[in-house]
Design a protein that fits this description.
The protein is of the alpha/beta class. The protein has helices spanning 17-26, 29-32, 57-67, 70-75, 84-95, 110-118, 131-138, 151-158; strands at residues 36-39, 43-46, 77-80, 100-105, 122-126. Helix 3 (57-67) crosses helix 5. 33% of the residues are buried.
């Protein structure tokens, strides 16, 4: 395994409601403020598609990068993605003041690769389904913000329902919360 490529950090950490709420509180307002709307009278929709990156994945990327130690952020981050994860990691890196390298398969949709570049990341093209071959020369000492099941990456997106469990909504039954009537 190349230097800097992160494998399992040890035993899996439990993702608790408290850790999800902590992740939600740590997100910048520009990330967590997607609207909640009522649909057909009784259903609430959390419009994560209106996040700055177009998906909920920004929540996990920011949560992970904010929890990196300073030396991890100094080295920069590298991710493999053909779309939303790469856009999110690139934006999170910019928000956290670090550099991002995104390994993008050559068959990725053009608008997705363009959005990654617009966020300031370095794009490294690779043949489809072979990202590992591109990593060692790309970023030998970078941190890899792994997609789920990494606990910080799970906590971030899991924070989306926190916006609809407050006193104004109460429509989302979450662990440890009373079920709405």
């Amino acid at each position: 395994m190349a230097s800097g490529v992160v494998s399992s950090p040890g035993p899996m950490q439990l993702v608790t409601l408290a850790s999800i709420e902590e992740a939600a509180a740590a997100l910048p307002e520009s990330v967590r403020s997607s609207p909640v709307v009522r649909w057909r009278g009784k259903t609430w929709l959390k419009l994560e598609s209106l996040q700055p990156t177009g998906s909920f994945k920004i929540r996990g990327a920011v949560t992970k990068l904010k929890r990196l130690p300073p030396e991890g952020r100094t080295r920069g981050v590298v991710a493999y993605s053909s779309g939303n994860h790469g856009i999110a990691v690139a934006r999170a890196a910019r928000l956290c003041g670090t550099k991002a390298t995104i390994v993008v398969p050559t068959d990725a949709p053009g608008p997705k690769a363009g959005a990654i570049a617009l966020e300031g990341a370095t794009i490294v093209p690779c043949p489809p389904v072979s990202p590992i071959a591109a990593w060692p020369p790309v970023a030998p000492s970078s941190t890899v913000p792994a997609p789920p099941p990494a606990p910080d990456v799970i906590r971030g997106p899991s924070s989306a329902p926190c916006a609809i469990t407050g006193p104004d909504h109460g429509a989302f039954p979450a662990p440890g919360r009373p079920t709405p009537r």
